[in-house]
Amino acid sequence: MLAYPLYSAILIPTIYAVIIGVESLVIGAIYLVQGFSSSGWGTGVLGILSIIFGLVLIADPLIGAVALVLLLAGLATFGGVSAVILAYRMPG
């Protein structure tokens, strides 16, 4: 990193983007299974968004590293809205 700071400024966020992309694919698959089993449509939609997010990050990691903050903000916003909607639909 000290010898080639320009390469490390590009390589490290790219590696993080790929790692987060793979993790997002796994979490999305788990959410899809939960959504189809019994958790409801909110979990299934969140799983689909996580899979799309993971595919975007893996398809082009450099652009994904640049847009990572915006993608995470969108995913967190939709996840929060889904959680609020599901909380109001729960009995009790």
Task: Explain the overall architecture.
By secondary structure, the protein is an all-alpha fold. It is elongated. The chain contains four helices and no strands.
What's the pLDDT, averaged over the residues?
84
- Termini separation: 55 Å
Largest sheet: none
| Sequence of secondary-structure elements | HHHH
Helix content: over 70%
- In angstroms, what is the radius of gyration? 16 Å
Low-confidence stretches: none
* Shape summary: elongated
Proportion in β-strands? under 5%
Say how many strands there are.
0
- Annotation field: number of helices: 4
Q: Which structural class matches the secondary elements?
A: mainly alpha
Describe this protein with a few key phrases.
0% strand, elongated, mainly alpha, 92 residues
Give a quick precis of the structure.
The chain has four helices and no strands. With 92 residues, the chain is an all-alpha fold. The chain is elongated, with a radius of gyration of 16 Å.
Task: Give me the secondary-structure topology.
Blueprint: H1 5-39, H2 41-59, H3 61-66, H4 68-89
